Amino acid sequence: MSEIGSWKVKTGLAEMLKGGVIMDVTTPEQAKIAEEAGACAVMALERVPSDIRAAGGVARMADPTIIQRIMEAVSIPVMAKARIGHFVEAQILEALGADYIDESEVLTPADDMYHIDKHAFKVPFVCGARNLGEALRRIGEGAAMIRTKGEPGTGNVVEAVRHMRTVMSDIRKLTTMPKEELMTAAKEMGAPYDLVVYVAENGKLPVVNFAAGGIATPADAALMMQLGVDGIFVGSGIFKSSDPKARAKAVVLATTHFNDPKTLADISKDLGEAMPGLEISTIAENQRMQERGW
Amino acid sequence: MQGAFREHRFALESLGCDVTEVRKPSDLEGVQGLVLPGGESTAMAKLLQSDGLGDRIKQLAAKDLPLFGTCAGMILLAKDIDGSDQYRLGLMDVTVRRNAFGRQIASFETDLSVPALGSHPVRAVFIRAPYVAKVAPNVGILAEHEGKIVFIRQGNMLASAFHPELTPDKRVHEYFLKMVSEYR
C-alpha cells in the first residue's frame, strides 16, 4: 500500500536536510547562487527579514510568481512562508508545489490565538520555537521540523543561542524526572503529554531542529551546530552582506566542519562585510518577531 | 557530510558495527565500507569537491571498497544523471533521473518487494527520490516500483532510491554488511 504525505515522508525530508544550510532568497538568481554554494534548500521570499523589519506594515505570503520562478531555477527543495494561522496561504503554497511551508513569525500573524492545523496538509511544515513547550505545541499541531526563532533580520545571534540553550536545558530537565512528574511538567510547559514522555525517554525532540534568526557569519553557524542544532537557516545574513557568493559558501563549509576550528579559521578569511547588525535592546518589545506565536 | 547520516549510523551500530563520520579525506583511513547518505546531491557534491574527498573515494572504490548510496548517494554513484552536468563520482554504469517521482508533495512510502531480502516486503520511504532510467548489463536489479528501477547492485556497490535508514527493518543494511565481509 502506497501513502503520500505520511508523517515519515514529512519528517524524512527534514532528516535529509540535516547538516545543511537553508538560505533565504528573493530572486531566481539568488537561488542559483545559494544552490551553487551548496545550500541544501532555499526559502523563497518577497523580502528578506531585515527588509521586512525596515518596511514595517503587514508582511504576507510572497507572490506565487516569485516562488514559482525560484522553483523553476533550482533542483534543491524550495520552502515558502505562510503567516501564523493563515491556513489559506498554506493551501496556496501546497497547491503551488512548495516542498516545505514555514509558518513563520517573520510575517505578520493572521490569527492571534491559533496556529495552522498542519496535520491537515500533505506538505510538511517547519515552525519556530523559543523553548521546549512551544516546540512540542507546534509538533503536536503537525510541524515536521522545528527551528529556533532567534530574532530575525538582526544579524545578532544572541536570541538564537538563548532559544537553543533553553530548549536543550528543558530537554535535560525532562530526562531526569521520574515518570509521575511528567504530567505536571506537560501542564506547566503547555505541551502535549505524549510528546513530553517521548522527550523524557529519548532525550531529544521527535523531529529535526535547525537554528534560525540572526545567523550572519560562518562562526555563528558553527556555534549553533556545536550547541546541538541539526542545521542552519540563514535569512538576511547572506544577501545583505557585501559578498554573498563567498559568504554563502563559507557558511555551508562552516556548517559541515563545525567542530574543526582550524578549518573554520580558513573559511572565515576575506569574506568582506557581514550584514549590519542590530542590538536586540534597541528593538521595542512589540516589534520583536519572536514574541509572535502562541 | 550533509544529510541523513545519523540514521545510517544508528542502523549500523544496532547491527554491531563501529561507525565513523567522514567529512574529509583523512577520515577515510581504515574504513571498510562507506555509506553515501540521503541528502541533497548538489550540496554533497560541493563538499566532495572542496577538498579532494570525492577523488579519494574514487581511488578506494577502484580497490573494491564497498559503497552504499541511498537517494542522493545513488545519484552521486551514477555515471549519468539525466539532463544534468552536476558533479558525481560516476562509478556505477547507470543513468539516474533526479526528483523523478516529483516534488515533496508526491513523496511516498510503500511496500516494496525485494526478493534478495526474502519474501516479506520492505517498507520503503521515497523522498523527492530518483529512479534508475537505464542500467548496463553488468548491473543487478534488486527491486522495481511500478516498473521503475529503485534498488541496484554492481559488484562492490549498492544503491537504493529509497531510505532504509528511516525504517526499523534492518535487512538492507544487513545485506550491505554481508557485501563488506565478502570484500574484506
UniProtKB/TrEMBL annotation, chain A:
User: What does the record give as the reaction this protein catalyses?
Assistant: aldehydo-D-ribose 5-phosphate + D-glyceraldehyde 3-phosphate + L-glutamine = pyridoxal 5'-phosphate + L-glutamate + phosphate + 3 H2O + H(+)
EC numbers = 4.3.3.6
- Keywords recorded for this protein, A-Z: Lyase, Pyridoxal phosphate, Schiff base
Which SUPFAM superfamilies does the record cross-reference, listed alphabetically?
Answer: Ribulose-phoshate binding barrel
Please state what class of enzyme this protein is.
Answer: lyase
- Pfam family, any one: SOR_SNZ
Q: Which InterPro entries match?
A: Aldolase_TIM, PdxS/SNZ, PdxS/SNZ_N, RibuloseP-bd_barrel
Q: Where along this sequence does the record place binding of D-glyceraldehyde 3-phosphate? A: 165
Q: Where is the active site?
A: 81
Query: What would you give as a GO molecular function for this chain, any one?
Result: pyridoxal 5'-phosphate synthase (glutamine hydrolysing) activity
Which pathway does it operate in?
Cofactor biosynthesis; pyridoxal 5'-phosphate biosynthesis
Domain (PdxS/SNZ N-terminal) spans 7-212
Q: Where does D-ribose 5-phosphate bind?
A: 24, 153, 214, 235-236
GO biological process assignments: amino acid metabolic process; pyridoxal phosphate biosynthetic process; pyridoxine biosynthetic process
Function, please? Catalyzes the formation of pyridoxal 5'-phosphate from ribose 5-phosphate (RBP), glyceraldehyde 3-phosphate (G3P) and ammonia. The ammonia is provided by the PdxT subunit. Can also use ribulose 5-phosphate and dihydroxyacetone phosphate as substrates, resulting from enzyme-catalyzed isomerization of RBP and G3P, respectively.
Family stated for the protein in its record: Belongs to the PdxS/SNZ family.
**Sorted alphabetically, which HAMAP family does this protein's record hold?**
PdxS
Summarize subunit and interaction data from the UniProt record for this chain.
Answer: Homohexamer and homododecamer. In the presence of PdxT, forms a dodecamer of heterodimers.
Q: What is this protein called?
A: Pyridoxal 5'-phosphate synthase subunit PdxS
Underlying gene: pdxS
Automatic annotation (TrEMBL), chain B:
Annotated TM spans: none
Keyword NADP listed? The answer is no
The record's GO CC annotations read:
cytosol; glutaminase complex
MF (Gene Ontology): glutaminase activity; pyridoxal 5'-phosphate synthase (glutamine hydrolysing) activity; transferase activity
The answer to whether keyword Transferase applies is yes
PROSITE patterns in the record: GATASE_TYPE_1 (PS51273), PDXT_SNO_1 (PS01236), PDXT_SNO_2 (PS51130)
- Which sites bind L-glutamine? 39-41, 98, 127-128
* Pfam families with a match to the protein in the record: SNO (PF01174)
Q: How does it assemble?
A: In the presence of PdxS, forms a dodecamer of heterodimers. Only shows activity in the heterodimer.
Task: State what this protein does.
Answer: Catalyzes the hydrolysis of glutamine to glutamate and ammonia as part of the biosynthesis of pyridoxal 5'-phosphate. The resulting ammonia molecule is channeled to the active site of PdxS.
Protein's name in the database: Pyridoxal 5'-phosphate synthase subunit PdxT
What organism is the protein native to?
Acididesulfobacillus acetoxydans
